[in-house]
Design a protein that fits this description.
Chain A: Keywords: Aminotransferase, Transferase. The complex is a heterodimer of chains A (about 425) and B (about 425). Helices cover about 45% and strands about 15% of the residues of chain A. Chain A has two domains: about 110 residues, Aspartate Aminotransferase, domain 1 (Alpha-Beta Complex), CATH 3.90.1150; about 240 residues, 3-Layer(aba) Sandwich (Aspartate Aminotransferase, domain 2), CATH 3.40.640. Chain A is of the alpha/beta class. Chain A is globular, with a radius of gyration of 22 Å. Chain A is built from 15 helices and 13 strands. By secondary structure, chain B is α/β, with parallel strands linked by helices. Chain B is about 45% helix and about 15% strand. Chain B has a seven-stranded mixed beta sheet with strand order 2-10-9-8-7-3-4, sandwiched between helices. In chain B, strands 1-12 form a two-stranded parallel ribbon. A two-stranded antiparallel sheet of chain B has the order 5-6. Classes of the chains: A alpha/beta (about 425), B alpha/beta (about 425). At the A-B interface, helix 2, helix 5, helix 6 and helix 10 of A face helix 2, helix 4, helix 7, helix 8 and helix 12 of B. Bound molecules: pyridoxal-5'-phosphate (PLP) (2 copies). The site of one pyridoxal-5'-phosphate (PLP) has 13 residues of chain B, from helix 7. The site of one pyridoxal-5'-phosphate has 13 residues of chain A, from helix 5.
Amino acid sequence: MNYFPEIKELPPDPLFGLKARYTKDSRSDKVDLGIGAYRDNNGKPWILPAVKLAEKKLINDDSYNHEYLPIEGYKDFVVNAGKIIIGEESVAIKEDRIVSQQSLSGTGALHLVGKFLKDFYHNKTAKIYLSKPTWANHNQIFTSLGFEVDNYPYWDNDNKSLDLQGFLKAIEDAPQGSIFLLHACAHNPTGLDPTEDQWLQILNKLSEKDHLPLFDSAYQGFASGNLEKDSFSIRTAVDKKIFKAPILICQSFAKNCGMYGERVGAVHVIPSETNEKLNNAIASQLKKIIRSEISNPPAYGAKIVATILNDKELFNQWQEDLTTMSSRINKMRLKLRELLINLQTPGTWDHIVNQTGMFSFTGLNPDMVKRLEEKHGIYMVGSGRASVAGLNDGNVEKVANAFDEVVRFYAKSKL
Amino acid sequence: MLRRNIKSTRSFSITASLGKWTEIPLAPPDKILGISEAYNKDSNNKKINLGVGAYRDNFGKPIIFPSVKKAEVLLLEKETEKEYTPIIGSKNFQNLVKNFIFNNSGKDPNGEKLINEGRIVTSQTISGTGSLRVIADFFNRFYSSKKIIVPKPTWANHIAVLKDAGLEPSFYEYYNTSINGLDYEKLIESIKSVDNETIILLHACCHNPTGMDLTNEQWDEVLNIIIEKNLYPMVDMAYQGFSSGDPYKDIEVIRKLNKLVVDGKIKSYSLCQSFAKNMGLYGERTGSISIITESAEQSQSIESQLKKLIRPMYSSPPIHGSKIVETIFSNEELLNQWLTELNEVVGRLNTVRTKLFEKLDGSIYNWDHLNKQRGMFIYTGLSQEQVIKLRNEYSVYATEDGRFSISGVNDDNVDYLADAMNKVIKESK
Ligand SMILES: Cc1ncc(COP(=O)(O)O)c(C=O)c1O
Ligand SMILES: Cc1ncc(COP(=O)(O)O)c(C=O)c1O
């Protein structure tokens, strides 16, 4: 008898497959623009100085231990994480309208929220609307929980800009009470965010239709270097009190603390009215899900973040670190555009500097991406998304020249 | 269950009013947590907490294994990145778990053969709970039966984890409280009566909550029934090392299963494993699942499906605990230090167990079972009323099934505890 008769081997996750090909490539000047993690100007991973200092402080503290955390997580972490995202002075905090639960980073937060919505959201047939395009994992996170997933227009490829009208129309057309997943900032993969004015239009339209806003905040502070600025969309949604539906936030510290592998994140549920009983019910149901999936969340990363958020010096260091990362990335954006302009590469390249966060949606097509990999040893995902963090002073010229070559190659072949 | 309790009109949005919101029912609180909370509020300075499933030293304090602390200091010095580990953990972590457990670090030729043939798939998980959860999900998708039997009683969270993943858990007989011992005959009978191909959850050692394990001969007999009925063995090993003090000795059942696989008597089994207790890494959530497969080719399929399951749940496991484990296993001195420390921890538990036994009044209650039980717990056999009485009158806090976490007992409180237990028993006679 075969115990698992139906089982088939699946193709590897595209990003992990890309990484495997990159690792195998023996060319010494290969460039990895696939990875969604920060690299310093030497192309090396970077542990934030704030994190190292916090680790030292933490493990030398007499009260440090490895005990189980409560199911809801490390209190100092979840409470302060909430303040970071909606602002310490937020009306939701004053009115006691925030329920927080620690999660396994951003992915775990999205999974938890999805499961919670599946069990308790009033609109049993509600679809979840994702931006087109979006982070590759969003789709599976929600379909694996039994949701029907749909798209809203986002990226206007012709103009390399936001398709605001298409976005607004999708909000208008979606059945009342749908769920909209919004990238809080540094949209992945396009790097293109709505302007503040555009956000206002989007949020107003969402509230008019009584949709439920689900914010995915994976890059706070990474886009502009400024925590407040990068949570504009969320804070506006909370402060304006325009939503009757609860506001849900999935928060990750993977990128902004450079603690990818520590799996630090949180879910925040913000009901529109103060109701202690409801808060307790929500908190208890979130805990019930956590208890049956993982018992309790991992301690170390949460303690590091809590240490940073609780210590003025470390917090200032972290702000500095955020600036270091975001300004290096911005410098690379400017440099790449400048080089392409100097090369007179066909096309316009302003979008590279108008985009923010880790990624740039270059506009290169899958053929060009393939040629970049094969001919030039430059690895990026087929959508044309480049991780700008993979660029540095040592490789940006090579990358610009290669972009120029593949663009011209395919431009020529069209003739 | 939940869904049925909730009226279909309930709303989690404000189209509806406050009233409808509150139709999210309050989920019941965790029992053990409730005990700790009550304990913390108690002002009696003689109070004792026997609820938590974590080790306490002779002063009632949590410990960090010194070997673990050393590994952390090394990490702090040497770590240069905190990148994502792969979805199922690093190859190094997977290999070390395989070698430590299945090959018994060079002492199990059958396990070694399975490893070399590529017939073991290992994935790092969110400690023991996460491994149970992922394997249950996996069975739900790919195994022929959704039925799974667990011992009665079992770890409080087993049922919730398995059910939540879509399996259908029920019990097999295990323990008889009236004799404070295994109910072996009924155990055999109840396993024989389940449907063929049912999954059977086996506690590898230090059965939680009873502390009572099968003998060698009993294991053989149970495994024979498993073969006859083609049951699928799923081993839960949360306390490796806590029975004998030696993690290499506490895996007899794994060795037996490896042999059965190599002899072709069974084709597959699974292991859920945790470093929470034996390295004291509780909150770091470090553990693994391993599936013994029928072929190297099937291993690849299974591995790819595990990745597909895990990626939308949490992407990849947390690295701090697994880096500690990797650091310890890569350094022979640290590894030996850890083994010694684990042995000392278990030694202390056994010492207080004996002390408590000596101070309990055997003339009013037969306490012989205490000496047969292994691991972090004693399953006293005290009734719910007696446990409540201990709490209300003596500030001794334990779960109402009569399970005491022995690590809460130490030289300073063992007399007080024995005295309280003796009194409660006398009073209820
Ligand atoms: C948009 C978006 N959401 C969520 C995540 C989740 O990341 P993590 O689970 O590592 O926090 C990512 C990571 O790449 C992301 O890009
Ligand atoms: C029998 C058993 N299995 C699994 C676990 C899971 O523990 P963890 O998730 O902390 O590794 C426990 C913990 O108490 C247990 O007793």
